[in-house]
Design brief:
This protein is mainly α. Helix content is about 70%, strand content about 10%. It folds into 2 domains: about 60 residues; about 210 residues, f41 fragment of flagellin, N-terminal domain (Up-down Bundle). The strands form 3 sheets. It has a two-stranded antiparallel sheet with strand order 1-2. One of its GO terms (molecular function) is structural molecule activity.
């Protein structure tokens, strides 16, 4: 009888201890807001939490990169739009100058205006971003993209290297515009029908020379040059617009993923207060009942079993 009684007391005491441990764990979860406040409480959940937090950090880095890229695209679009206005104005002036009613003196006055656009175009092409990097120099972004020599000739000093930024796992996007591609691809058609490429700066110089010399043939050629330049810039504007749309779509996807991952992480590591409070109440009632039973059994003597 003594062995059975001792075993009963031992079993009951063990159950009381287990019940108290459950209550202590639930109270800790409610106080910390976490299912496993320490890694030792649930190592598997802790590892899953680390992996999910790492994934969320990756998404945050991608978001930051995309926001910087979007800002760069917007600034480039503004610069290209400004260049497009210059090109369109030069095209208008070439049409005006080609009009037979304008005198040689009138064309010299037009040449004065056209010459000013070369300086403006050079300034736009050598613009910098907020980090003091040149937009159109390729990877040589600390080097001025275009340099004008004392004789007025303009040369490109950057390189032809495209820059890509990672915006997702295994996904990259090109983020730079090569200056020589933007300003060096004016298509010029010769009398024999052959096509050559000249820079926008050469186009302006040749137009100014044609105006000052009243060369009607080259003034007409300037119309075609300016139209080609405007078309090229228009194409670039479309490309930048599409790139901005791509970035915006990618940002939306990242936001959706971030919300999803945070919800998964929350369900994995955060305390469900409603469930925890209900379970705590149940366990406290069970503990009280067990303590009451233990107290009654403890008062029993050997004679109570006879």
């Amino acid at each position: 009888m003594r062995i059975s009684t001792n075993l009963y007391f031992s079993t009951l005491n063990q159950r009381l201890s287990e019940q108290q441990n459950k209550i202590s764990t639930l109270q800790t979860q409610l106080a910390s807001g976490k299912k496993a406040p320490t890694a030792s409480m649930d190592s598997e959940a802790a590892m899953a939490s680390l992996r999910m937090n790492s994934t969320l950090e990756d998404q945050a880095n991608y978001r930051s990169s995309l926001q910087r890229v979007d800002g760069q695209f917007r600034q480039e679009e503004g610069l290209v739009s400004a260049m497009r206005k210059i090109s369109d104005r030069i095209h208008e002036l070439s049409i005006t100058a080609a009009n037979g009613t304008y005198s040689a003196e009138d064309k010299v006055m037009i040449a004065t205006e056209v010459a000013q656009y070369k300086e403006q175009l050079l300034a736009y092409s050598n613009s910098k971003d907020e980090n003091d990097n040149y937009f159109f120099s390729g990877t040589k972004n600390s080097t001025q993209a275009f340099l004008m020599a004392p004789d007025g000739s303009v040369t490109y000093q950057g390189d032809q290297t495209a820059i890509f930024v990672e915006i997702g796992s295994g996904e990259k996007i090109r983020v730079n515009t090569i200056g020589s591609e933007l300003l060096g691809n004016v298509s010029r058609t010769a009398d024999d029908g052959s096509i050559s490429k000249v820079s926008a700066f050469t186009m302006i110089d040749d137009f100014v020379t044609a105006l000052n010399s009243n060369n009607s043939t080259n003034i007409s050629r300037a119309m075609a040059d300016a139209e080609s330049f405007s078309n090229s810039l228009s194409k670039k504007q479309v490309e930048l617009g599409l790139s901005q749309n791509s970035v915006a779509n990618r940002l939306e996807i990242i936001e959706e993923k971030t919300i999803l991952y945070k919800n998964i992480l929350s369900k994995s590591v955060d305390t469900d207060y409603t469930a925890a409070i209900t379970e705590l109440s149940t366990n406290m009632l069970a503990l009280e009942a067990a303590q009451s039973t233990f107290a009654k059994v403890s008062q029993l003597s050997l004679f109570d079993y006879l």
